Each structure stands twice: as structure tokens, then as C-alpha cells.
């Protein structure tokens, strides 16, 4: 069987283009395209798990000349995660909006999928643009004051970020005359030292805005607070995860130097501590969850930054942290639609999500922090370990307050929301049990 | 407004057929010329494999004598699909956010010169736009500038006649059809050749109108798409004007 990862991008695009011709069936077409994507992503993931990486040429030109898609195990996993959660989330929220929402949603998903699949740095920029432009409109979709504020903040920062990314790419191209990430990686040593670091700084700053890392995340609380809960859920599993993966890919493939990993480690630690402390101060639930997301992105960045010495533990940690954060935070955002969380489904979602983010065994968040600790211990980074523990305690503090406040009256969520969030949050349990099952069967944990 | 759409389509077909009959053979001089791009930055560290491939192989591989077009539509066609999608996303976003905000238009008559002048200019704007995107592989220009010229013609009409509007439905139809055709051409490449957006029809003789494999098809789609998207953005913004 021949797998074509490009279909994961082409099918949502054509569905988004077709929807205006059949406005009444907008929801059905979008859901169908996402269901196809979900199935295809599952197939692609299992193929890559057993056969290894896939490279797909676009337009039939060999890679340095043409564009190509490079799909490894981690990017296949992220594509699967994004498309799976997108489908579940869309089934819950899609009916509340008109067909234009379906189009923008599809475009945001196609863009995020493109970011994780592509192996060409300019192509990555294009997909960042698609994702960002679709996100601005989706955030503003509620049309009240808060939504517009969040969208405008994101739009201003996002536009500046796009220019930074483009400048970084232009500097690389001016020196190396190539855009393919593996070609750049092979020639990076012939690059002028100053221009190399300038381009890395520009790329990190630009993508950092989308990835919500510390000094660049001024838009995050406003955007998550203003957006409707379904869109906030989309932002927390889609664009932000794709962007943090883009940073990791640029760092690990193009700039695999000691200094880059060190910068990423510092940025990650600062993001973690400041995000968690800011979340502790918040009264509003959505703002608290948004700041908590910032902290979690810092944690994921720390995991990737440890990949220079012990790649096995660090990548497993990043894998579990991404899964845990995506599933728990997306379902908590759906839950935040109603202020109280009475009722079995809502209580289950709230408790499991919170415990997974804090890092309780046997949920996925626990394994993320566990492998992160193992990697950090190997490098003897005691301060980092202490700060991660400290952040965990702060998390436990504000999440306990959140649970205490909102456990109460029956919530008014409809059935679609409940099903979607229970399914989403169940992944953190499933993936948390996976390592135990693997250990019992004495299999290697992950075939990297 | 069916008249305007009909006129636009008729003009485009006319320009296309005239081009075919004339066979535009004046480009044959190109064969002997040798204006290859030398390395502009002396002493640069760069490898020249990608730029020199674009310069030396473009005509053989794609049949386009405008190398910029060949890069935009063939070598990096996937990026162009993305760029078209960015424009589509922003047009959709504008109409998503302005969906319920219809207000009564305040009519203010334009002066005589603007009214008569824009009537005179509109057909030429449409013709020029169509010419630019149909001849994208032969002359400077392509789908994006051609579409913008067409949209500017409609913008002129909207300025001159406050009651002028292009039917919402036709705009969104041409937008969707053009976008779908772009992706379908890509998928046909996957079906008949080996990869997405790959060429699957004969290249033709470089320099003629019917050459450069799928470039003219894609550029016509992009021209329609950009033209209708920009017009629809302008029209949306005009509708909510107080």
C-alpha cells in the first residue's frame, strides 16, 4: 500500500472550497472530510510505526528543487492527534454555527496538519499563515467585546510573528540557497556564524508567538477567554501543538547545537514557572486554563530541549506531555462552557483532566513528567527538576480551588458536549495505561 | 448582473481563442538568446544547485519561458495552493464576521466623469486581467495580478454606481469552483502521474500559448479565484458602510 500524506492536507482544503456550493450540507461535508482525515491519519500512523519514515515529493521534483513532506513517527502521531480531536470536537460544536465556521475550522485543521507534515521551511510558513488567519476569524466569531479584543491581540502579534518567520527563512535562503530542512541541516556549517544565529532567533521568536512560549504570549489569555469554548479547545490541541512541534523540528533538525538546546531549556523553564504562577492568580476559569496551557507548553519545550543527550526519554516525555495536555485541556475548555460541573460526565472529565495535568499515575501526564525527570536526572539538572516539582504543586493548588468552586449544581451542557469531552479525556487514561501494558508484555516502549 | 459575468467569460474565451489562432510565434527569438543568470553576489558561500536548476532546467522540465511562473506554479505549486488558501481564508473570515451586519446603503451619486469613465474602463480592465493570467507562462504576471486587475475593475464600478453589486452567489460559485479545480488538478496529478500537483499532460512547444503543461490551467483558476475573492471582500466592506 502506498501512503500519501498529502491527502491529509488536500482533502480538507477541497472540502472547504466546495462547502459554499452546498451551504446546507456544510456540517456534513466538513464532518465527512474530518472523518476521512482521521481514518487516514490512523492508517498512516500505523504504517509509519511498522515501516519507518515516509518522504513524499510534491509536483514530482526531487527534494532540494521541489517541496516534499517528511513524516516521521512523532509528526505522524501529531497529525493523528490533531485530526482525531478535531473530528470529535467538531461533532460537538459544529451544529451551533453556520457553514462559514465549518470552512474556517477545516482550514485551521488543514494548516495545523500541514505544519507537522511538511519538510520544507517555506511551506511551513505558508501553513502557519493559513492556521493563524483561520484562528483570528474563529476567535472573533463570538462577536462580543472580549472576542474582538482577543482576536485583535492575536492578529497584531501573529502578523508580526509571520514577518519574523519570513525574515528568518530569507536569511537562511540568502546564505544556503535552499529551503529543504534536511538540505539546510547538511549545509548549516557553511553558514556565516552571525547570520545563522540571527535566523535562529527570528524563527524562534516568530514560531514562539504561535507556540505560546513566555515573553511572546500576550495574546493567549485574551484569545482563550474571548473565544467560544469549542474554539478554545481547538486552539489548545491544534495550532499550539503544531507550533511547538515546529520549534522542536527546527531545533533538532536544522540547529542541533548545544547552545540552541540550552536557550530552549531556559525559555521553557521561565515559561513554565511564569505560566503556572500567573494561572494561580486568576479568578476567571478560562483565563486560568489559558495560563495553565502556557505553563504546559513550557514543560513540553523543556522535554524537547533535553533531547540532545538522551533522545529516547526526552521524546517519550514530549509525546506523553502533548497527549496529556491536548486531551485534558481540550476537554476542560469544553467543560468551561458552563460555570458548574455537576453530573457524572462533567465530574469525571474535570477530575481526570485535572489529575492528568498535575501528573498523577497512571494517567498520561504522569508518564510525561516521569520520563522528563529521568531525562533531567541523566543530565543532572537539579534546579530544573525542583522547578518542575514546584510548578506541579502550584498546579495542584489552583486546580483544587477550581474543582472546589465548580463542583455543585447540575451543569447545563448538552449531550454532544458531554460525549465529546468524555471521549477526549479518556485518551489520557488509555495512553497512561499503555506503558504499563507494554512493560507487562516486556515490549520496547516505543519504536523510534 | 449575469450580463457582467457573461461578458467577462466571453472576453476571456475571446482572448484565449485569438491567442491560439495567432500562435504567438514571436517568442522563437528566445531560442538563440543566452541571458542566463550569473551569480549576483560575488564571494557568497551559497551552493547554487537549486537556483541553477531553476535557470537551466525550467524550460525543458515545464515548458514555460517565464521562469518565475514556473517556480511559482510548478516547482513550488504547493506553496501557491497555500497562498491561495490564505486569501480564501481571509475572505471567508471577513464574510464570517460581517455575516449579520447588513445596513442600508447611503447613496451618493458619483460625478459624470467617474460614471462614464468607469463604464468605459471596465471591459478593458477585465480584458487586461484575463490577458495577464492567461499568458502567465509567457509574459510577466500571472493569476494574482490578473485577478487583482479584474477586482479593481469591479471596485471602480462600485465607486461610480452606489447601487452596483455583483451577485453574492456568482462570486462564491466562481471562488469555490476555481479553488476546487486547483486541488482537483493536483489530485489528478496524484492519479495519473506519481505525486500531487505533478504535470500529467504534454508540455507543448515552449513559447506558444498552449504550452507549459498545467501552468495555464492553474493560473486561470487562480485568476478567477483571486478576482472573485477580492471583489467579494470589497463588496462585503461596502455593504456594512454606514
Overview of this protein structure:
- With 448 residues, chain A is mostly helical.
- Chain A has helices spanning 7-18, 26-51, 73-93, 99-117, 121-140, 145-176, 181-187, 193-211, 220-226, 229-237, 239-254, 258-281, 285-305, 311-335, 344-358, 364-378, 382-406, 415-440, and strands at residues 54-57, 68-71.
- Chain A has 18 helices and two strands.
- Chain A has a two-stranded antiparallel ribbon.
- The two termini of chain A are 22 Å apart.
- The mean pLDDT of chain A is 88.
- Chain B is mostly helical and 242 residues long.
- Helix content of chain B is 64%, strand content 0%.
- In chain B, α5 (112-134) runs antiparallel to α6 and α6 runs parallel beside α8 (215-239).
- The model of chain B is unreliable at 24-46 (pLDDT under 50).
- The interface between A and B is large, with 53 and 52 residues.
Global geometry of chain A: globular
Strand content of chain B: under 5%
Tell me the distance between the termini of chain B.
Answer: 24 Å
Give the neighbour order of strands across the main sheet of chain A.
1-2
Protein chain pair with the most extensive contact, residues per chain? A-B, 53 and 52 residues
| Proportion of beta-strand residues of chain A | under 5%
Counted by DSSP, the helix tally of chain B is 8
Secondary-structure element string of chain A: HHEEHHHHHHHHHHHHHHHH
Low-confidence region ranges of chain A: none
Biggest sheet of chain B: strands, sense, closure? none
Provide the helix percentage of chain B.
55-70%
The number of helical runs of chain A is 18
Mean pLDDT value of chain A: 88
Fraction in helix of chain A: over 70%
Radius of gyration of chain B: 20 Å
Amino acid at each position: 500500500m502506498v501512503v500519501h500524506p498529502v491527502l491529509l492536507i488536500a482533502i480538507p482544503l477541497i472540502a472547504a472550497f466546495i462547502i459554499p456550493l452546498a451551504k446546507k450540507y456544510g456540517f456534513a461535508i466538513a464532518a465527512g472530510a474530518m472523518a476521512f482525515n482521521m481514518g487516514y491519519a490512523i492508517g498512516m500512523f500505523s504504517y509509519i510505526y511498522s515501516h519507518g519514515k515516509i518522504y513524499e515529493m510534491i509536483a514530482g521534483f526531487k527534494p532540494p528543487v521541489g517541496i516534499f513532506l517528511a513524516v516521521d513517527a512523532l509528526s505522524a502521531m501529531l497529525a493523528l492527534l490533531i485530526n482525531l480531536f478535531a473530528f470529535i470536537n467538531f461533532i460537538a460544536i459544529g451544529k451551533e454555527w453556520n457553514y462559514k465556521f465549518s470552512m474556517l475550522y477545516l482550514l485551521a485543521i488543514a494548516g495545523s496538519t500541514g505544519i507537522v507534515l511538511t519538510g520544507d521551511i517555506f511551506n511551513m510558513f505558508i501553513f502557519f499563515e493559513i492556521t493563524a488567519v483561520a484562528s483570528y476569524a474563529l476567535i472573533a466569531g463570538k462577536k462580543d467585546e472580549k472576542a474582538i479584543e482577543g482576536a485583535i491581540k492575536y492578529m497584531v502579534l501573529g502578523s508580526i510573528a509571520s514577518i519574523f518567520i519570513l525574515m528568518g527563512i530569507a536569511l537562511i535562503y540568502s546564505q544556503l540557497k535552499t529551503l529543504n530542512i534536511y538540505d539546510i541541516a547538511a549545509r548549516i556549517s557553511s553558514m556565516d556564524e552571525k547570520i545563522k544565529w540571527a535566523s535562529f532567533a527570528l524563527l524562534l521568536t516568530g514560531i514562539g508567538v504561535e507556540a505560546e512560549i513566555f515573553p511572546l504570549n500576550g495574546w493567549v489569555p485574551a484569545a482563550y477567554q474571548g473565544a467560544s469554548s469549542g474554539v478554545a479547545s481547538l486552539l489548545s490541541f491544534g495550532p499550539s501543538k503544531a507550533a511547538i512541534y515546529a520549534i522542536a523540528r527546527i531545533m533538532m533538525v536544522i540547529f542541533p547545537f548545544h547552545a540552541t538546546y540550552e536557550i530552549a531549556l531556559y525559555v521553557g523553564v521561565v515559561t513554565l514557572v511564569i505560566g503556572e504562577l500567573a494561572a494561580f492568580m486568576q479568578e476567571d476559569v478560562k483565563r486560568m486554563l489559558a495560563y495553565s496551557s502556557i505553563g504546559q507548553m513550557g514543560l513540553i519545550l523543556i522535554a524537547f530541549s533535553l533531547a540532545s543527550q538522551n533522545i529516547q526519554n526526552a521524546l517519550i516525555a514530549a509525546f506523553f506531555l502533548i497527549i496529556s495536555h491536548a486531551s485534558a485541556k481540550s476537554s476542560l475548555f469544553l467543560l468551561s462552557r458552563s460555570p458548574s460541573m455537576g453530573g457524572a460526565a462533567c465530574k469525571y472529565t474535570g477530575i481526570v483532566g485535572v489529575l492528568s495535568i498535575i501528573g498523577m499515575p497512571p494517567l498520561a501526564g504522569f508518564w510525561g513528567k516521569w520520563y522528563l525527570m529521568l531525562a533531567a536526572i541523566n543530565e543532572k539538572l537539579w534546579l530544573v527538576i525542583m522547578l518542575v516539582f514546584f510548578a506541579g504543586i502550584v498546579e495542584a493548588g489552583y486546580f483544587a480551588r477550581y474543582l472546589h468552586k465548580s463542583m455543585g449544581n447540575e451543569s447545563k451542557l448538552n449531550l454532544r458536549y458531554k460525549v465529546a469531552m468524555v471521549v477526549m479525556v479518556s485518551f489520557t487514561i488509555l495512553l497512561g495505561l499503555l506503558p504499563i501494558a507494554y512493560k507487562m508484555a516486556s515490549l520496547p516502549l516505543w519504536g523510534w | 448582473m449575469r450580463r457582467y459575468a457573461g461578458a467577462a467569460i466571453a472576453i476571456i474565451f475571446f482572448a484565449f481563442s485569438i491567442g491560439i489562432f495567432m500562435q504567438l510565434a514571436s517568442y522563437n527569438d528566445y531560442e538563440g538568446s543566452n541571458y542566463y543568470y550569473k551569480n549576483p553576489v560575488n564571494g557568497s558561500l551559497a551552493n547554487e544547485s537549486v537556483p541553477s536548476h531553476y535557470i537551466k532546467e525550467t524550460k525543458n522540465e515545464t515548458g514555460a519561458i517565464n521562469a518565475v511562473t514556473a517556480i511559482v506554479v510548478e516547482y513550488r505549486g504547493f506553496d501557491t495552493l497555500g497562498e491561495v488558501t490564505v486569501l480564501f481564508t481571509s475572505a471567508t473570515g471577513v464574510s464570517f464576521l460581517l455575516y449579520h451586519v447588513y445596513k442600508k446603503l447611503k447613496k451618493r451619486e458619483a460625478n459624470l466623469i467617474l460614471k462614464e469613465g468607469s463604464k468605459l474602463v471596465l471591459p478593458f480592465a477585465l480584458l487586461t486581467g484575463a490577458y495577464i493570467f492567461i499568458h502567465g507562462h509567457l509574459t510577466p504576471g500571472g493569476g494574482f495580478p490578473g485577478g487583482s486587475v479584474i477586482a479593481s475593475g469591479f471596485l471602480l464600478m462600485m465607486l461610480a454606481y452606489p447601487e452596483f453589486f455583483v451577485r453574492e452567489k456568482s462570486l462564491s460559485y466562481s471562488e469555490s469552483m476555481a479553488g476546487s479545480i486547483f486541488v482537483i488538478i493536483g489530485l489528478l496529478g496524484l492519479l495519473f502521474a506519481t505525486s500531487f500537483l505533478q504535470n500529467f499532460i504534454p508540455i507543448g512547444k515552449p513559447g506558444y500559448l498552449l504550452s507549459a503543461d498545467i501552468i495555464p490551467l492553474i493560473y486561470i483558476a487562480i485568476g478567477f479565484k483571486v478576482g472573485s475573492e477580492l471583489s467579494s471582500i470589497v463588496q462585503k466592506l461596502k455593504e456594512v458602510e454606514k
